[in-house]
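About this split. The held-out portion is used to measure sequence recovery: a designer receives only the structure tokens and must propose an amino acid at every position. Recovery is the fraction of positions where the proposal matches the reference. Here is one held-out target exactly as it appears in the evaluation file.
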């Protein structure tokens, strides 16, 4: 259910979200590198809704730690919990932790999944 995130063995993420991100990771990195080479002064803004928001958290973390690119802002809507408390701390202590906005509806079940019972 939980898989280790990159070089951070205590940081674990939801396996389904992780494998979904891996399926597009090369494309995301390639297209981002192309965009940055064409527009070197542009800000990187990441956004998503629901599953897309979960993937945007993984993409943001990947971009910061593996591509060493700064993130200007992250806007997410209705995103589920992506990782365990160690991953959340890793993210919150990163540069993106200060520029991430998570918009949820308390009545929506998705932002409350996976439940805390699964250490998310």
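Reference sequence for scoring:
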């Amino acid at each position: 259910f939980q898989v280790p995130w990159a070089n951070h063995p205590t940081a674990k993420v939801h396996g389904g979200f992780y494998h979904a991100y891996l399926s597009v990771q090369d494309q995301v990195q390639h297209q981002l590198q192309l965009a940055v080479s064409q527009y070197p002064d542009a800000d990187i803004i990441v956004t998503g809704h629901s599953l897309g928001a979960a993937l945007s958290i993984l993409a943001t973390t990947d971009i910061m730690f593996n591509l060493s690119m700064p993130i200007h802002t992250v806007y997410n809507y209705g995103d589920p919990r992506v990782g365990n408390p160690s991953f959340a701390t890793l993210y919150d202590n990163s540069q993106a932790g200060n520029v991430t906005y998570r918009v949820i509806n308390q009545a929506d079940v998705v932002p409350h999944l996976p439940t805390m019972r699964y250490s998310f």
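Annotator remark: The chain has a mean pLDDT of 91.
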